[in-house]
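Why predict the complex rather than its parts? Because the way molecules touch one another can change local conformation, and only a joint prediction can capture that. The input here totals 918 residues.
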Amino acid sequence: MDELVGLLPPGRVLVDPDVLASYRHDEAEWAPYGTPAAVVRPRTAEEVQVVVRYCARHGVPVVPRGAGTGLSGGANAVAGCVVVALDGMRAIKEIDPLEKLAVVEPGVVNDDLRAACAEQGLWYPPDPASSPWSTIGGNVATNAGGVCCVKYGVTGDYVLGLQVVTGTGELVRLGRRTAKGVAGYDLTSLLVGSEGTLGVITEVTVRLRPRREPERTVAGYFPSVVAAGRAVEAVAAAGLTPSALELVDRQCLEAVDAWKNMGLSADADTVLLGRTDAPGAAGEAEADAMLACFTAAGATWSVRSSDQEEADALFAARRLAYPALERLGPVLTEDICVPVGRVAEMLGRVQDIGVRHDTRIANIAHAGDGNLHPMLLTAEGDEAARLRAQAAFDDIVREALELGGTVTGEHGVGLLKRDGLRAELDPAVLDLHRAVRDALDPHRILNPGKVFTTGKEST
Amino acid sequence: MDELVGLLPPGRVLVDPDVLASYRHDEAEWAPYGTPAAVVRPRTAEEVQVVVRYCARHGVPVVPRGAGTGLSGGANAVAGCVVVALDGMRAIKEIDPLEKLAVVEPGVVNDDLRAACAEQGLWYPPDPASSPWSTIGGNVATNAGGVCCVKYGVTGDYVLGLQVVTGTGELVRLGRRTAKGVAGYDLTSLLVGSEGTLGVITEVTVRLRPRREPERTVAGYFPSVVAAGRAVEAVAAAGLTPSALELVDRQCLEAVDAWKNMGLSADADTVLLGRTDAPGAAGEAEADAMLACFTAAGATWSVRSSDQEEADALFAARRLAYPALERLGPVLTEDICVPVGRVAEMLGRVQDIGVRHDTRIANIAHAGDGNLHPMLLTAEGDEAARLRAQAAFDDIVREALELGGTVTGEHGVGLLKRDGLRAELDPAVLDLHRAVRDALDPHRILNPGKVFTTGKEST
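Output of the joint prediction:
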């Protein structure tokens, strides 16, 4: 590593064992990881290029990392690798209100970009649950989703251009700054969601929207997750376009109540939270129509919240669900996406799978676009429970595929969904993936062992 | 070709010289083309696979073709090639109102899909000017744009999944049917806009929207293209999101008047046509705000059209501009896209370029997203005028790049923008393109000579 230290300004290369230990893994439960040989915290794209070129020369694996908030092990270290930690590159280089775009370094935190845009009357929509901590670079690498996707799409829908360092150490610009453009292949979209296996992102140009209308909230309490799932289907069938449609089940409500004493679980088995940002009377009408869908699907209580504080409290419960569950023990988070017409059936199957494997499963879901996050709960140190949860995890993935779904809606393949990817894609399509990977990373140094089951495995 | 004839059902392989002649080129002016050895009109994906495998075995170039309405030479035949004409595969296999998607064969005509969706209360937005004739497969291969892009995005924004035959003759499914999904690389987006060089599209799964609100129209008459360009910038600066913002200049208005006697050119040098589909009072407010932008930017006359017939007539003039100009002689159509803040400047530069090269240039533009279509007019058979027009074409491309634009906004690279692509992209990025192309088409049989300047050139 002395050579690498000499190639970079002082302080960039970290080899302290405690530091290395803190960069070994992301937030995925039970995904394998090794200890890196070094962590590099570059400040410029050129420094990233120096690191990748060094690693290419020496055949050292490169593991790019943003904030490490991923849930699939995509940023987990491989033994002996160099972790390129991009969280120090956090300049918002430009916000252009006329062209409605921003140019940012990869380490800019999602919420920070949103706040900076809001100051200029603009809106950066993608809002993963990790938005207070996760970085734009990581969001791009995983094509992160969030609550607003049901109406406004995912991270990739907002990426106009990228600067990346490829596996051969080339520093290249992909994409454009114009509203439209078809000059060459869409390599920008190819890089989005490639989880660090095709290039290290050193700059992102994102598309912005004008500030939107304030949202109206509709809440429905349902007697079961399946009933709530039917309401989701009813909303889609009615041709509504909610700006959010989130599901929180009893397990989550109870965990939040146990932590924050919000009194939610007394009244509901499952809560569905809808929002609309259609303007004026159209928004009123859409909120009313959503309420009617909830009621028709069997809501025991439903209400259009005229009180913004009350509405925010309900959404806070949704945000708090994951940390509230984590207080109780290890949480293995699923991330499947099924057709909207299969949400109710899939939620029912998740319950059955929990019973079958004697595993407690809580559910939050971006229900409006069929993206479910069953959360498999175990007790710390209970090895048998861990194995049961992992078996349940595999069953959920398999049954999602049976219902025409995908093994990952927004968290990425990383390490946890590599077998799922093989189950989802034809062998010929996996071969195309490998051919494309080899085109951009011929030495196979970029995040090896992720996405694909070939390559150097982490331990 | 006897071998190929024997591999397919009767009637699929056409070798009649008159038929071959009619499949030599698309609608691009002055792009080179050769005569195909055969035209195949397959009826199934498996038949396409048979053709590609035959061509791969024998090293025969494959040129995929939809309706042949392209404007960059992307579907032009190479001497001795097999043209795979997909316009016979025109089944709409499925329209799913709940999941809001449709599955179609590549030869389905754009307007036919839109009409079929409308019957079920759904909307397929992408609306290139060729929509009465062009096919979804061709739209996907070129990532076609249109009028609604300024608010609703381009073809690629609506492609959920593809079935394609790769250059090695593999028949594969890419993408998904769910609203979200990040399982593997986004090869779907990679294929979109790849102009037949990465695969032959045999099926397309498109995302649909609910039917939208009726649009309101605002028309502005301006004393110059530059003044109209300033109004476009004003609309963007005001944070408005028109559902259309189209520009038609004096040359076009006069040509339409000469043909249809609509009396447009008496009052205006340049017309700007804005639309909004925001619902209710929000739409009223947006139309008023657009009107105010037009007036402030120097419109000599502007009006919110309360009369749908009048509004439709103005948009008809925009649609008629291209055929009206074609009546007068060969039209070389440009397709650049610049930042919205540079629209006025670029329009002024186009005028200067016309003067400099003694070439008459008319303008239509999807002005709201900076996508300009200067149309270079010549007299039939005037060789010197052709050379002057081609020099002007090159200057427009170069100056668009100077202003931070792209060499093609929506028509594709094909043959006409190959030099432009080299000017726009870094050599390292072109190398990535070639590496990706070789990954999917290792024998380089798919539409050779298009996009890239390497490979077998057409003559």
